[in-house]
Amino acid sequence: MSRIVYLNGQWLPEAEAKVSIFDRGYVFGDAIYEVTAVADGKLMDYAGHAARLMRSIGEIALECPVSADELLAIHREIVVRNNLVEGLIYLQISRGPDDRDFHFPKSPKPTLSLFTQAKKFIADGPNVVNGIPVISLPDLRWARRDIKTVQLLYPSMAKMEAEKHGAADAWLYEDGFVTEATSSTALIVTRDGHLITRQLSHAILPGITRGSILSLARDAGIPVEERPFTLDEAKSAAEAMITSATQMVQPVVKIDGDVIGDGKPGPVTKRLRKLYIDYHLSNLI
Ligand code: PDD
């Protein structure tokens, strides 16, 4: 069934939504995006995604073409128009069409688009039951990874490299320390039960799921450390996991072929996944 998508104030069948070849998102990758999970036909952790969107927009000196209330209304309407029960909403704002010029246009006409994608992610699939293998790769992305830009070529290349090695994803490292995964946050659990993830900086995206998991962990009495960790520390950790909006919490059981813990999803990972699901499924909007 063809989706109904949103483009600059219009609701259109997906085949009719057209963007100019001069759009700066297309020519320069001059655009930012958000991905919000939808469960039970409602938005999951929306406030965090909306706040990060506004931050990304500000960091690239753009203005949001719609108000916060309109943005929420659009998110809700796209779910209804597409009868979406479980999946995600992808939103993108680019600086809009202009003659090709590295300078920003003086009066930009941003392009705002949203579409939905159905995806089952609440029930435990094989990746959650068994955990996933990852490989490590150098982090060759730009140095402002805190901004959620559409410049995703390197993460795509890294995912292809992982696939070539029979892995589900790649953990990226810089100066010997893990930054994050290609499209999710990387976390480990030490042998004495501490949850470790890199502190926020320009080096990583401030994951909304990350923030939520850290606060749920603290509330549950799990000691949390926000600090860099090396690949060696990750490989000898008791547990490893990734977090993102539509993966929630997923166990990682191998890094570069080295088995993590006993090679099975660990108790802290399982507990955090359950805490996340229980909390967010009862706080959908
Ligand atoms: N990716 N780090 C990176 C590099 C990401 O691309 C993402 C999200 C995350 C996790 O962020 P959050 O918890 O807010 O989803 C961390 C999205 C889902 C994507 O690109 O599809």
Strand percent estimate = 25-35%
| Name of the CATH class of the largest domain | Alpha Beta
Please identify, by name, the CATH architecture of the largest domain.
Alpha-Beta Barrel
Q: Biggest sheet, in brief? A: 9 strands, mixed
- CATH homologous superfamily title of the largest domain: D-amino Acid Aminotransferase, subunit A, domain 2
- Structural class label: alpha+beta
> Which parts are unreliable, with pLDDT below 50 for 5 consecutive residues or more?
none
Bound molecules: N-(5'-phosphopyridoxyl)-D-alanine
User: What is the end-to-end distance?
Assistant: 26 Å
CATH topology of the largest domain: D-amino Acid Aminotransferase, Chain A, domain 2
Shape: globular
> What is the number of domains?
2
Percent of residues in helical segments? Answer: 25-40%
Please tell me how large the radius of gyration is. 19 Å
Number of helices: 8
Order of helices and strands: EEHEEHHEEHEHEEEEHEHEEEH
Write down the overall mean pLDDT.
Answer: 98
In total, the number of strands is 15
